[in-house]
Structure formats: C-alpha cells, structure tokens
Amino acid sequence: MDQAMVLLALVVYPVASVTQMKLYLFACGGMAVAYVIGHVLRGTAPLATVKLGWPVYAFAALAVASALWSVDRSSTVVSCAWLVASLAVFHASLVLFRRRGRRWLTRVALFVPVTWVCVAAWVILRWGSLRSNSAQMLAVIGSLSNQGPAVTELAAPYLFYLVVAEPRRRMAAFGAIGCALFLVVASQSRGALLLLGVTIALVAVLFGRTTGTKIRRTAALFVVGAGVVAAVWGVLGPGYFSEPIERLQNSRMFDASDIDIRSVDEADYQRTVMYLEGINAIRAHGVTGIGYGALPSYIEAIHGWRLISHNIIVTAWGEMGLAGLALALVIAVVGTRRVWVARASARRVDARAFYFHTATLIAWVVALMHAQFRPQLSNPMFHVLAAAVFAAGVDPAPGSSDARNPG
Prior knowledge:
mainly alpha; globular; disordered C terminus
C-alpha cells in the first residue's frame, strides 16, 4: 500500500504539471489523511519513523509555525499545505525503508524516467518541443522542461546501481537511462546538462570498491558519453549545444550591475532579483525570517511580480530564520554522514549495499547542488531521496512503524 501511494504521487506530479497542480496536492494530501486516520483507528503513533527522520519533520513543523510571524500569512499557510502534503511522500518512503529495505526504490528508479518520457512525448507531439517556445505553451506546461530532469536526475544514480549490482534487471536499467538522457537532451536545461556531467563524474569517482574498477568504469562512461554527444551532434546539429551555452554566458545572474532596469520578460532577470531580495530578507529578518513561502509577496511589494524561492538557503534562512537555517544544515550534515557511514560499513561486506549507498550519496550531492537553483521542496523525488538518506544503514524491521513496537 505504501509503495502504491508513493508511485501514485510520482505519477500524478508530471500529469498535474501539464493540467492542474492541485491534483498533486490532493494526491499527497490524501496520503497524509490516510496515514493519520490509520494511526487513529489503530491507536498508534509513528514514533520510530519520526525519530529516524526527525530533522525533516522538525523543518516542516517550523515552516508551519512561521505562519505566526509571516509577512503574508495566507501565502505561508498555502505554502505549508503543499509542504505538509509533500511530507507524506517522505513519510511513506521512510516507512517503506523500515519495513522492506532498499529494493522497492529501485523499482521507483525504473518507473520515474518512463513516466516522464510519456508526458514529454505528449508535449513534443503537441507543440514540437519540450522547452517552451511560445506564451501559449508556457501557460500550459510552465517549467516542465526543468521539472522533468530535476526529478529523473535523482533516480539516475540508482539506475547505475542496477547496471552494476543487479544483472537480471540490467536491460530495464539501460532503457530507463535512455529515457533519462532523452529528457535531458530534449529539455535543453542548463542545470540538467551541468548536473548530468556532475553525476557522471561522481559515478566515475565513487562507483567502485577498487581503483582498477573505478578506472575501467570511468573509461566506459567516457566512451558512452562521447557516443551520446556524437549522436546528438549528428541528429540535432551543433546548434543544440550552442543555445544552452549562450544562455549560460548571457545570463543576467552573472551580472547584477543593471538590476534596476526592469526586464520582467527575462527569466534570468527575475531569478536574479529573487536572489538579491532573498539576501535582503536575510539582512532585514534573518533571526525569524519573513515566513515560509512569503518571498513572492516580499518581491511583489517591491517589484510588482512574484517568484518563489529557487534557493534552499534563502528558503531556510530568509523565510524561516536562524532556526530554519540550522535545521537545513542538520538535514544536510546528518543525512550525508549517515549515507557515508553506511557506505563505508558495506564496502567489504555487502557489494550491493555498498553500491546502493553510493547511488544515494551521488543523488544526495546532486540534489543539494540543484537546491541552490530550483525549489527542490516541491520535487517529490527529493522527498523519496531524503528518506533513503535518513534510512541509510538501518535494517528493515517489519511491523515496527508505530509506537507499540518502536523498533
């Protein structure tokens, strides 16, 4: 049941992105309500699960509490509804790790890229492109070309795990990797292309228990990567590569000297303003924050348009104050340490566990890097990954998800 709920959330997210995002809120909110009702009827409480992932639950609780001092309470309440609903994905995933171990996540990793490719195919067939090329298209799909790679990039390291550790599912893993690569290529997302390179580099460095294995896999990845680049170059031409590079070089985020010049039609301009106003919010309200999800209202009061935080530090510190920043650092540090220790413990003992924890570590690093440039807290795969991080090294304990058997 828990796995079905997580898969449902991951399916609804891309569908909701091209229809109504409230569908995702309803799906995750339904998950949360089902959990609460289930515990009430059984007379239990998920104490063991909450203890395992306490920094994440505390972060969500602080976000809700920030409504008391928010500069825009209504925006904070709405944003918290989304966060609490998404927390249901984290909770369900953490329960699954405690009950079933790690194998269920590999099924998710195979499932996610295929789901997104189906949605992307519909978009391409309708508009001829995955990246928005008109106002009408933008109004329907929004930032879908960035959302798809952001979700699938966190599943990709587990596909490498399947290739290395589970030969029987190797062909399925190659198919899912192809889907993930297609999304990155079709999106022309600067962040997705850069983080694809980071993922490949981390796989080359970390995916091996000996130096010789790392060298062989690095060579193999280099050959495959060169083949993919050559294929894309031959099919789409050099213009495919030059356009993202030009957008990166011309980005207003590298030059804020003329930020007073209004250019609301330029996405980079808006994002640059978002960073600057986020810094201003930290300077003015760094102790308590302006309230979770209140940055769009803060920007609107000054510039007349809205944009949510695309940086986890701005979200944690600027919107939730010093306590939010502290909890975000705890999540990053404690989570990383758990994965690192679990990986080190499994190095000479359990090859599969070693490669699984390596995949988790790679995905976690990529997720934290991407969190500096996009709203990761709205990414359902980020919550699944966070559960994998905090469950690292914990043996599954069937039936121990409630207060009567705290495990």
